[in-house]
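User: two proteins, same treatment. go.

Assistant:
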Amino acid sequence: MRSLLPILIASAVVEAIHSVSVVSSNAYTCNPVSGIDIAFGPGDQSISANFPPIALAVEFPAHGYPGGNSSVGCGGTVEFEDFPSGVRFAISDITWRTGKLNLTKNNLFYSLTAKVDFAVEHNTNTYPIHYPVVKDYASATLLNMNVNPALSDYHDVYEHSAKNPNIYWSTCFNGWGANVTKMTFEISGKTDGGGTSEPGWGMDLGLVWESCYAPNETNWGQKVIRGWESCSYRETNATKKRSKQLYPMLD
C-alpha cells in the first residue's frame, strides 16, 4: 500500500535532484540562459518557474487582426536527473506572480494560464550501447489551469493562488540511470483592451510526495509510446534516402 512520506524524509532524498539542461519556446524573450529559472524550493515542497524578461505587451495589428489587446507568454523545458527510487510527486497548488501591472479602467485582465507536463524517456538498448538507439516514452499533464483574475484599473504586482483541481501523480521513480525525465512549464496572460506590465512573471507550485513501488517508469502516463526514437547514425545510405524523400529540392 502506498503511503505519504514524512516531509523530512522526502526532503532528504530529493535534495540530490538537479537540472542538466533547459530549452525555451521563445529564444528572444525567454531564452534558456538568462530568461528561465526553474528550481526546487526549500525542503523540496515546491518548485518555481520564473521568467524574468517577459512582460505584458500590446499586440500589434496583423493579418486582419485589429490589435489593441495585450498578452504575455513563455514556455520552457528542463531536464532533471537523479530522482530517488520509490517515490513520486504531484502538484497540489499554484501561485502565479506577475510583474507590476499597468491596467487602466479600459483594460480587463481576463485570462491567466499555467500548464506543466512531465515526461520520462527510457533507453531500451543501453547495455551495451548500440545503434539504432531506441527509447520508450511516457508523458502526462500534471497541471493545466486557466483562471479569470477579472482585474482592471490596477497598478501593482499581482498574485493569484489556486488549488490544482485535477491531481495527477508523476511516474514512480525507480532510479534507472538510462532514464531521462523532463518537465515543461508554460505560463500566459491575456487582457482585453490593452495594458502593460514590467518584466518578472512566474509561478510557484506546491508539491506533495508519497512512497510507491516502481516496476517500470514508462508503465505510466496519459501518452505512452514504445520504440519512440530510432537514431540511425551508422546507416548512411538509408539516411540519405530519407533525406532525399523529405527534401528533394536539395538534390
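Protein 2:
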Amino acid sequence: MSAVLLDALLSHCPDIEPVLDALCWPGSSVPETERVESLAALIKELIHKPLPEPVRSRLALRLQAVVWDQCVPLLKSLSSESISSHGRQQVLHAVCGLLGVCVGQCSVDSLEKLVTVALPAFSPPDSDVDQPHLDLDVATELLGVLLSSQKISESPPLALRALSCTLSSVKEVSEAQASKIIVRIWFASLKSSTEERRADVLQHIWEDLLGWHERQHTAAVTARALLCLTALSDHLFSTWERNTPIQGQEWRPKPDPRESRAFFGVVQAGLQHRDNVSRKRALYLLKRCVSLAEVVDAAVCVRDPGGFG
C-alpha cells in the first residue's frame, strides 16, 4: 500500500476500525503476503500520526490483538503448513515486519510472552508437552525481531535469557542453521543494545563458547566455536574502549582475545584441525588478534590458565 493511498485513506476515514477489520484475517488461515504488508503499512502510519489519547489507547489494545490473534497463530501455521518454500518465506518475512511494527508499542510483559513462544524451538523436544511449537527457522526470525526492538533494552535479563537458549541450540544444529541464528539473533541483540549493555552480551557469549570448548575439546566443538568467534570478530576485535561503564555497577570489561588463554586454545586447535575451513578461520582470528595488538600498541599477553580474558 503506497504512502499516497494511505494518506488518502486516513484522511477520508474518520473511523479506521473497519479498515483494520478488513485487513485482518482469521487466525487459522494463511493470508496473502500483500495483505500482511498492507496491514503493517497502515499500522505504521497510524503509530506516527497525531491521534487523540482515547484513540491512541484503543489503537494500543488493537495492536495487542493483532499480535496475538493474527501474528502468533500465523507463525504457528507457517511452522506446520506444507506451503511452498518461496511462499512460506515471503509470508514469514511479511509477518515479522508486521510484528516489528507492533512490538515497539507493546508492554515488556507482552514482549516476554512472545519470547516464551519462540524459546522452545531452541531447546530439545519435550515429550511431555503436546502444544505445537514453532519450528527453528520461524522461531529464529521471531526472536530476531524481538531482540531488534528497542523495547528489549527495558529488560536486559530477558535478552540474556533468550541468548542463553540460542547458545545451547547453536552447538547442536547444522552449520547453516547456526549461521542463521548468529546473524538473525546475536547480531540483532548486539545492534539494539546500548553501549552499556553490549559488553555484557559479548561477555556472555564469549564465556559460554570458550567454556564449552574447554569442557569438550573435540574437533566438532572446535569447528563450531571457530564459526561463532569468526562471525563475531568485528565486535571482538573492535578498538572501542575495553571497559564500558554500566549504570549502578562497576566497569564491565569487554572480552579481550589478546589476554585469553582459552581463546588461543581454540585458535591452536583450529590451526591443527583436519577441516580446511576451520584452519582458515583459526588463522583469520590469529591475524585479527595480532592486528588489534598493533593498533592499540600493546603486546599479546595471555593471562592465567583459568581466565577467559
